[in-house]
Amino acid sequence: MISLKKIGGVFILLLILKGELLAKGTPSALVLLERAEKFRLLGLPTLAREQYLYIQRKYPKEKNISKALAELSREESRRHELNGLNAQKAGALKLASLEFQKAMKMNPSDSELRKKHLGVMNELKLKKGLNDRVSKEYLMGLEHYQAGRLDRALEYFVKVINMAPAHKGAFNYIEKIGRKLGKVKDR
Predict the structure, then answer these.
(1) What are the residue boundaries of the structural domains of the chain, listed by start?
(2) How confident is the model over 48-70, as pLDDT tens digits?
(3) Closest-CA residue to 177 (of 143, 154, 144)
(4) Among positive and negative, which fits the CA dihedral 4, 7, 13, 15?
């Protein structure tokens, strides 16, 4: 009997199966196939894969195993692809990239997956490039501010705000410069 208990999860499931094998001897290919399918339906693809591979070794004449393994890989690939898309939508680009890599590992011939992964990688490069430009402009603004060239510093801080609207440091310096130039009243 296969059952999952909340505590222990997979470990308890394996103990139940081990006891089943010892009590009944080696189960038939059909019993093992049913078990693998139950693992798959329970959302335990690693155990399902191990079960299919065991069947493949134990019963080499069993024809449906390769198909079942391929189907399992497609399902896992699709799950990772969906996780990648969700991560990308949430802005978690590194996680999205990892999920797409996992999906491509299971389904290397999928050109659409490759395109999605490249898209995420390009987004990461753009984001990194933007952060580098923001940092550079901010540092230039600080340099001009410290040298007393307030008009020039203001130009750089405004560039920073245009690239990264939530940049608090640039806002603070724009406010300071405005007070010094008499354009912003003290709070």
Answers:
(1) 1-62, 128-180
(2) 889 888 888 888 877 778 888 88
(3) 154
(4) negative
CB-based contact 84:60 (threshold 8 Å): no
> CA torsion sign, 28 to 30 to 34 to 36?
positive
What are the residue ranges of helices labelled H in 25-110?
29-41, 45-58, 65-89, 93-106
Q: CA 18, CA 126: separation in Å to the nearest integer? A: 51
Distance CA 177, CA 154 (A): 7
Is 26 exposed, middle or buried (CB count within 10 Å of its CB: 0-12, 13-18, 19+)?
A: exposed
Joined together, the tokens standing for residue 95 give 């996680």
pTM over 0.85: no
pLDDT in tens, 106-132: 888 888 888 888 888 888 887 887 788
User: Which class for 99: exposed (0-12), middle (13-18), buried (19 or more C-beta within 10 A)?
Assistant: buried
Quote the tokens at residue 51.
């079960």
CB atoms < 10 A from the CB of 38, how many?
Answer: 15
What spatial distance separates the first Cα and last Cα of the chain, rounded to whole Å?
A: 72
